[in-house]
């Protein structure tokens, strides 16, 4: 506000000083311009009467007197306005100094504001960067935790599957061992039965030979009895080796675990209990007689 008021004061002084400059410019006029400027006064009636009674020299004298008065008034006005000009110049110097000081202070304040704004902006950018960094770290941490959790679940599932497979392998190994033992047991039973059958066949052949020799001694007297004896022996042997279920086919199926050879091939596929001891049949083996 002080600067504006001083500037207004300066403008007003400039406006008041303009007529002085104009008067100073008119301080030394040319004769022709001066005559033209006074030409309206020459047309007045009282001036025309004076000009009729006086010669032309008086006119020049009047013009020279007016010129002197104009010059004197100009010098007086210049003398009056000179201190004012000096005062205005001093005031302008003081005003320039004040303006310079004000400009410097404002410039320093502007620089301080710029520095403060720059520092605030830098701090805000740094805070925003740190916030984004923390958010990024949080997102990465959450994703890593989620992935690790998924991997742990997969590892746990694989562990469970491995345990199941191990149990299955153990079960298969045990079943294989059981089947192997059963096969060895069946093989032993078959070999034993084969040996027993061979012994039975040998005994039956011996009995047949002895019976044949005894029958030859009494051919005439006991011919009918011999024939009946052979028939009974053959029927007894044939009935011993016949199937105990149907009684038609020969027994060729060995039942386990009771080890009875008492069923034919047809009946062995449909019977689940032994017809001799009535025990449950777990397995059966077919015996081929040569």
UniProtKB/TrEMBL annotation:
Annotated transmembrane regions: none
A Pfam family this chain is assigned to: zf-C3HC4_3
Ranges for domain RING-type: 243-277
UniProt keyword annotations, A-Z: Metal-binding, Zinc, Zinc-finger
GO function term, MF aspect, one: zinc ion binding
GO BP of this protein: regulation of programmed cell death
PANTHER family per UniProt: BOI-RELATED E3 UBIQUITIN-PROTEIN LIGASE 1 (PTHR42647:SF55), SBP (S-RIBONUCLEASE BINDING PROTEIN) FAMILY PROTEIN (PTHR42647)
Name of this protein: RING-type domain-containing protein
Organism field: Pisum sativum
């Amino acid at each position: 506000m002080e600067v504006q008021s001083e500037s207004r004061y300066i403008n007003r002084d400039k406006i008041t000083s303009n007529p002085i400059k104009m008067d100073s410019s008119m301080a030394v006029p040319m004769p022709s311009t001066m005559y033209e400027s006074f030409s309206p006064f020459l047309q007045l009636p009282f001036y025309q009467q004076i000009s009729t009674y006086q010669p032309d020299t008086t006119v020049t004298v009047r013009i020279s007197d007016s010129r002197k008065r104009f010059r004197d008034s100009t010098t007086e006005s210049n003398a009056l306005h000179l201190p004012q000009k000096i005062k205005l110049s001093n005031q302008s110097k003081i005003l320039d100094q004040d303006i310079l000081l004000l400009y410097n202070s404002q410039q320093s304040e502007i620089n301080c504001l710029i520095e403060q704004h720059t520092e605030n902006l830098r701090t805000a950018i740094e805070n925003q960067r740190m916030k984004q960094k923390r958010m990024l770290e949080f997102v990465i941490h959450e994703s890593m935790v989620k992935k690790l959790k998924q991997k742990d679940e997969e590892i746990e599932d694989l562990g469970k599957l491995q345990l199941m497979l191990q149990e299955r392998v153990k079960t298969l190994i045990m079943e294989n061992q059981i089947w192997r033992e059963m096969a060895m047991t069946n093989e032993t039973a078959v070999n034993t039965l084969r040996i027993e059958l061979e012994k039975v066949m040998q005994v039956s052949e011996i009995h047949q030979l002895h019976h044949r020799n005894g029958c030859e001694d009494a051919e005439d007297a006991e011919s009918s009895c011999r024939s009946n004896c052979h028939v009974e022996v053959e029927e007894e042997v044939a009935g011993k080796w016949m199937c105990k279920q149907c009684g038609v086919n020969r027994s060729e199926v060995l039942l386990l675990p009771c080890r009875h050879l008492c069923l034919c091939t047809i009946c062995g596929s449909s019977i689940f209990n032994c017809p001799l001891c009535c025990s449950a049949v777990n397995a059966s083996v077919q015996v081929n007689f040569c």
